[in-house]
Amino acid sequence: MTIPKNISFVTFDVYGTLIDWDTGAFDAFNKEAERDGFTIERDELIPLFHDIQQQIEAGSYELYAEVLRRTAVQISKKLGWPLEPSRSGFLPDSVQRWTPFKETNPTLNKIAKKHKIGLISNIDDKLLGQTRRHMPLDFDLVVTAQQVRSYKPDPAHFTECERRIGGKKGWVHVAASYYHDVEPCLKKKVPVVWVNRTGQVLEANQKKPDAEVKNLREAAKLLGVT
To answer: Whole-prediction pTM value?
Structure first.
């Protein structure tokens, strides 16, 4: 696949792509742990934050707020931090304070003037509503895990998006997670732009995305937006 010349619809993953959730999650954990005089290192926390979520999401569907609560409990155990499970709500409560990358809103505004835009996210509707207060745009389409009762990389999000758009013609997806977004897009033959912020190196058996960029500004140029 290649990026289509006549782009009509651009969808975005939200957390990690538009929203700096690594910083948001670390700040939430750090603040809660400090109540107990416990210190958390960001480099140790973030890999656990992603890996444990993936494991939980691979099970039967439950709201993302619950996924975050369970993630907080499991991380605290691995770190040796004696967090009472009743306090685990600090993590979903923090989502409202997870902020966009500096480039997010200016770039989305430019893209929205030229193409229809949408969000495809592993989240529930309530928490996404809190996040959207940080991105004051009118999105033409929103697909959440709650709506399809499934978590990416399961293809349900993309199947539903294709149904609502009315096909794949002119559709491009933009995302930071190879595991959650790039792989399922490649399987479904949806052109995908990988925003590889962290400089991740692919394994020999992993297929390359249709395009790879370092940030949203580079993605916008690729989509013909300057």
So the answer is: 0.95
